[in-house]
Every structure is written in C-alpha cells, then in structure tokens.
Amino acid sequence: MMHPAYHAITVYSGVNAKNLIARRYLFSRKKITLISTLTLISITGVTIGTAMLIIVLSVFNGFFDLMKDMLLAYDPDIRIESAVETTFTPDGRLAEILEGNPEIALISPYVEGKSLMAHRGGNYKVVVVRGVDPDVHAQMVDLGRNLTSGRFSLGVSDRRPGMLIGEKLANQLRVTVGDDVSLLSAQAIQRSLTQFTAPRTYNFNVRGAFSMDKVFEGSLVFIELEAAQRIFNTRNAVSGIDIKLNNHDRADAVKGELQAALGPDFEVKTWYDLQKPLYDVMNLEKWAAYFILMLIVLVAVLNIVGSLTMIVIQKTRDIGLLMSYGFKKSDIKAVFLRQGIYVGLIGCGLGGALGLFISWLQKEYGLIKLAGSESFIIDAYPVVFIWSDLFMIIGGSLLLCILASWYPAVRASKIQPAESLRYE
C-alpha cells in the first residue's frame, strides 16, 4: 500500500504537498502518542499565554486611559512656558501664532508662585497660588463641578478679591467659606529683609472649596490673574499659557508646529510631558508585563522543539524517501517549519478569541472587582483593547513558534537519503 506521503506527492505538488505532509505528521489520527500529547501541550500553552497577554495588556490600557482622563480633567493639552526666565510677557507675535492655529480651541494664561497663607493670625502654610482668568479657565477646567462648598467666584466683592481653596488645605487651616485669609509672597518677605520694611500682605475672601485629584489639589489655591500679578510683582508677565485643543490626540503634532514657530526661547509641553514620570512608569509596567507573560508562551513553544525533534527521528525513513522522490532540503525544512506555524496559528487563534471574549465580558459586566473599590472611582478592573497590541501579541507568539521549529527543520533537512534507507 502506498505511503500517504508518497500519495501526496503524486496527487499534489509544491506547497500543497508540504502542507499535507506537515498536517499528517503533526496531527496523526491513528492513535494518541507522546508526539501528539506534546503537540497538544504546546497548543494549550500558546493559547493560555496569548489569552493572558491580551487580558493583562487590556487592563493596563484601561488603567492608563483612566489615569489619563483624570489628569486631562485638570491638565491642559499643551502648555507654553519660557525656556529662559520664570515669566514672560505675551506679545503680538505670540498671540498671532496661537490665534492663527486652527487646532487651538482655548488659550488661558496663568501666573503661578508660592506664598505664605495666614488665617486668624496663628495658622500659616506655604501654598501654591495660581492666578487665572476665571471666564476662560472655567471653560478649560470645570472647577465648579468639583466644588464641595461655596461658589465659583474670584472677582472683587465688598473690596475683597475671591479665592478658591482646596478642601484638604481648608481643613488644615480651619478655613471655611466666607473667611478672610492673607497671602504673603516670598519676594515680599525678601524685600522686607533687605529694605527693613514691613512686608505687604494681600487679603482674600474664600468663596469656595474644591476637591480634586490628590495629584493636583495639594496646597493649591486659585485667584484672579491680575491679583496674582500684583502679589508676585510680575506686572503684565505670566508664568505660562495653557492651551486646549479641538482634539487632544493632536497634541504632539501641534507641539511641533508651535515649537518651530516660537523658537528656543519657549518650551512647549504636551499633556504627556506634564505628567511624564507617571505615564512612563505605567508604560514601563505594561511592557514589563508583556515580556514576563511571553515567558509562558516561550515555555509552551519549547515543547514544539521536543515534539518536532521526535517526529524527525521517527520519520527518518519517510524523509529519506521524500528526498528520493525529488524533495529538496529546503522542501523538507519547509515541512517542519509549517508544523511550528500550524501550532502557532491554532494557539494564537484560540488564545486571541478567548482573550478578546474575556476582555469584552470584563468591560461590559465588570466580572472581576477591585479590592477596596469603595474608595475609588471605579469598582471593577477597567479594560481598553488596542488592535496594535493584538498584532504584537500574535506576532510575538508566532515568531517564537517559528524559531522553535527551526532546529528540528534544519536537522531534518540534513538527513541523507542513502543513510536513512540503508537498513530498509
């Protein structure tokens, strides 16, 4: 009776014959052998590893997007600062560049500095004072949504300019809405020491208390831009300009355009640059998890080396006969490389489908809850799927499967027909 491999050569040719022989060698239906068991283990390992990679990377993407949304609620899309001085005076050229860019939706200049805040004579604390244009800043950052008491008001009323204070800071200084506080800048303290005069203090009326993310709230207070310029004696200068774009995903492109137009005297930062250490750590954790979980796939594909090597040993006579029928060394090598590709395709296909399904279930129904979620803004692990991650996961798994089948394929291609048939 003609051997199936020989029948394949007579019926098929070229790629079809190689594919058929590869499938016959890898998925034998006659009986369960050690080779078929190792093949099943390899496929299972690649499936589990691929699924875990998709799930874990999707969770990392979910946390990244969650943190990004939280920070972008307060951070601008782009910030312009002086690369030379702590402040700069906006001129007509700068205004022309910014107003002429169609990507820019809002422009909000600000003044920022540290001051000593005093309340009722005995409570003192160094705070970060940010002076903003209330009308523009309210459109860029919705502070009103985060008010826990009082109202959003920074204008002058009853001869007192208004202030918004962080709730945590208000509790530390025992400040309530309606109280008056005093601000004393570091420059004023320095002048009083050198000129032997009493430092000038500025009084403000607390109009509201806000609660923001801990990254921002800290010891931050908001006052009007003109009041901050008087406190820090900057006249018409500002510390920087915050910009909101029509599409924040275009931040890098707009940054390049503005940096080229403004020159080296200015430093343009995107939302990513403003919180770069935090974003970098999250990205590092994601890719560290990717490489660690790829070890699962690596362990699985090592079984491919063992199973294919055993097939080479078991099918030595068949390989010799195939070569005597006209198969070249490259054809024999292709047969065994295809077996590794088959294992990779099946494992990646099953793992990809499983990983996407579980990720979808988590996103829709929140099956796995966060520990201690009562004090967090979400109660389940967030999931965001990125197609480029899928291509990278499947590509990496397939590459490992191909590399694992390379040694058995090369070994099979080196078999000499005369030697394999000598004792037949």
The helix tally amounts to 15
Order of adjacent strands in the largest pleated sheet: 2-3-9-6-8-7
The structure class reads alpha+beta
> Major sheet: size, sense and barrel closure?
6 strands, mixed, barrel
- Overall mean confidence score, pLDDT: 84
The total strand number stands at 11
Task: Summarize the SSE layout with pairings.
Elements: H1 4-11, H2 15-26, H3 34-72, E1 78-82, H4 92-99, E2 104-119, E3 123-132, H5 134-140, E4 147-150, E5 156-157, E6 160-166, H6 167-173, E7 180-185, H7 186-195, E8 202-210, E9 220-224, H8 225-231, E10 240-245, H9 251-262, E11 266-270, H10 271-274, H11 276-314, H12 316-324, H13 329-365, H14 387-413, H15 417-421
Parallel strand pairs: 3-9, 6-8
Antiparallel strand pairs: 1-10, 1-11, 2-3, 2-7, 2-10, 4-8, 5-6, 6-9, 7-8
Helix pairs in contact: 1-2, 2-13, 3-11, 3-13, 3-14, 11-14, 13-14
